[in-house]
Amino acid sequence: MSFLWKFAGGASRSQSQRRAAIEALERRQLLTAAPVPFHGVPYTEGQKIEAEDFDLGGQGVGYNDTTKANTGNAGDRTTEGVDIVTGGENGKVVGFTTMGNGFNTR
């Protein structure tokens, strides 16, 4: 991804002002993406929802994780940042959660 900065009347922005503008743009792009249910269809009332079956769409859409890497050991959804570890009823659980982590399920 590249950015072209244009300044009116020769004005310049500080590095922190440029960073703030880029971050705001990235947030707008993330919010426009639509999450997709992990199994392709929304859950129905009364259906059991496994935490590791969070929506597709990546960071900021299907989930929010405070670390980029999947440090789990279950070998499940390894390209995503949510830490899925072995354990639980089905052999997988979401682990290493901290304040700020969240998951969307539809």
Number of helices: 1
Strand content: 5-15%
How many β strands by DSSP? 4
Assign an overall shape.
globular
Unreliable sequence segments? 1-10, 24-31
Rg (C-alpha, Å) = 18 Å
Structural class: alpha+beta
Order of helices and strands: HEEEE
Topology (SSEs and partners):
Layout: H1 15-32, E1 63-64, E2 84-86, E3 92-94, E4 102-103
Antiparallel strand pairs: 1-4, 2-3
Descriptive report:
Helices cover 17% and strands 9% of the residues. With 106 residues, the protein is α+β, with helices and mostly antiparallel strands. The chain has one domain (1-106). β2 (84-86) and β3 (92-94) form a beta hairpin.
In a few lines, what is going on in this structure?
The protein is built from 1 helix and 4 strands; from the N terminus they run H-E-E-E-E.
Name the descriptors.
106 residues; two-stranded antiparallel ribbon; single chain; disordered N terminus; 1 helix; 4 strands; alpha+beta
